[in-house]
Amino acid sequence: KVLQGKKTKLYPDFQTGGYIDVSEYKDGERGGKVKVRAKIEIKDKKTLLITELPYGTTTGNLIDSVVKAVEKGKIKIKKITDNTAKDVEIEVLLAPGTSPEVTRDALYAFTNCEISISPNACVIVENKPMFLSVWDILKISALNTKELLRQELEIKKGELLEKWHMASLEKIFIEKRIYRDIEECENWECVLKTIDAGLRKYVATPSDKKPNDKRLMLMRDIVEEDIVKLTEIKIKRISKYNSFKTDELISNLEKELEQVNYDLEHLTDFAIKYFQNLKAKYGKGKDRKTEIINFESIETKQVIVNNAKLYWDKENGFIGMNSKIGDYICDCSDIDDVIAFRKDGKFVVNKIDDKVFMGKNLLYANVWKKDDDRTTYHLMYLDGNTGNTMAKRFQVKAITRDKEYNLITDNKYSKVLYFSVNPNGETEKVKIQLTPGSKARKKVFEFDFGDLAIKGRTARGNIVSRYPVRKVTFIEKGKSTLGKQKYWLDEITGKINKDKRGKYLGEFDTGDNIIVIYKNGQYEVKEIHSNMKLEYNQLVDVGKLEEDTVVSAVYFEGEKHWTMVKRFNIETSKLDERYSFLPENKDSKLYFASVAKSPVIKYSYRQNKEKHEKELELNEFVSVKGWKALGNKLGEFKIIKIEDLSQPETEPADTQETKDDSEVKKVDSKPKKDKDKKDKEGDSGLHIGDTIDFDV
Predict the structure, then answer these.
(1) Residue 335: pLDDT band by 50, 70, 90 thresholds?
(2) What is the 3-state secondary structure (H, E, C) of 258-280?
(3) Which residues contact 584 (CB under 8 A, 6 or more apart)?
(4) How far apart are CA 162 and CA 557, in angstroms?
(5) Backbone angles phi, psi at 655, to 5 degrees
(6) Residue 481 near residue 427, CB atoms below 8 Å
(7) 189: DSSP letter
(8) What is the predicted pLDDT for the residue at 533?
(9) Which is it for the CA torsion 672, 673, 679, 684, positive or negative?
(10) N or C: where does the chain have the smaller number of CB atoms within 10 Å of the terminal CB?
């Protein structure tokens, strides 16, 4: 169409397929753009399939972008799996209660499932850089190709004329026996003149053309080089000269010359036919892969999950979601409440907002959850009324918003000496240093918060010392006094959580660790905490580390080319240190690893060009050995596919929880009766471990 002078529309097409919106393409001019999307199919109400990628992305970075969106709270999915082989297939499992349509829109809005590409074609034209549209570039290219084709035709025409010229001279030279005329010549100049004179009897040239001339008209004049070539014809060729073949050759040359002249006269049609031949030869199977559609606009507010970040300025006492306030604290929701503790021994809970004043000189601030029975606060303070140093452990389960609560005695000399937050009710040991001028015999001693009971926030606490305290220093954290904490692993993001997202890991007490197994055949022991994040794309299995934990592994031994099975205990105790349990060979490869108590696998392999599929209970196949042992040989083959058939660890049944709740209710009912009884008896309400002061 360009060669015909018609306007054409040309849009990008990508090998990766997907969808493209060209509404803002602007013919590829600078400032235009196209939007490309992945092809996402709704397999069922719980599953989405990504089968084609937008240009410029890979399955790896697309999955990474999805994970980041999940971490930021913009979308909710349960699991994402890359099943790509010959064709792209990324399976996205949705979280319960999530709409597949909304999730698909969210993937387009917040991940690399939709990207924008801006064309910026800078071309050197007549030694000057120019920003051109696709139409301009196509026009220049087409016209340039047309000119090259004209030059090729001219070259071909010249070659054909030359062949025709020499074939005609050669025919006359041999048929008219002009070669005999040179027998009497005594020098080279005479030979050349004799041949030239003999030829001119039968041929005419543009320079000696005469009216009514019956001689053969040549296309150009005869030059000395033509005559020299005639003298180089061998006698053998002259003796076997075939006049019929020469006439046929000249006739074919004349036909080709006629076609070339025609193509030169109709150069546009020739160029179009040239492009059509290219398409027919190389265009097979090159159909458009990227489908052109108009993308509907996606309102991010309708697909985003509520999300915010909490910041604080602890000196000036401001807290909020505005990042300009100060330092980052944590992620939060815009409907959360925040709690702040101050150096004056007071705390307050407020509704989160962009900027909230909580009081100057903040000690601690974070999101507050109602009825939180795990987070325990440790406080040590100077009682301004008595001069004693007091310590207490307390929780904040219920409050009235915007109300200040005093944690220490209301006296201008009262002040906070030590404060800490323990998310799982852990105990602490601290070192107390008294002032040098105090009369105490022992001026440095340790204090264990684990000796204190968790009481209400209004309790005065226990006496630590009657002498002035100069400094309180943290020594170590102890175990939780609240019982074990349940943790789960979000296998999509690699985050450890308490929200029952992902794989259940078990119940953990303070000091309990997890074992992490990686795809490269290494394991690592790590301390677990709720803000922990693992490298999800490198994980094979994660579990709670017990004294009897056994790692079961199936791997390919690179040196002997065997598939091996081994089971071993964890013999190392150093945290955050990786240890390899595979042989040191570059061809060794881990197929499977698990910390399950009774691992069962289903595996397939090829042997003698036949595919085999079997199941195996690893506990029965090999005994527990050292972590450096090779294990037992499974076979001399490579595993094609392996599947874990083990039963995953599950959370304790709800019936047990119900029983525990009822027991708690029974225990809670007794203190109420005891309290009534004590009130009647005038009891002061003292408990074992409380300190009593006597006035002497």
Answers:
(1) low
(2) HHHHHHHHCHHHHHHHHHHHHHH
(3) none
(4) 72
(5) -60, -35
(6) yes
(7) H
(8) 67
(9) negative
(10) C
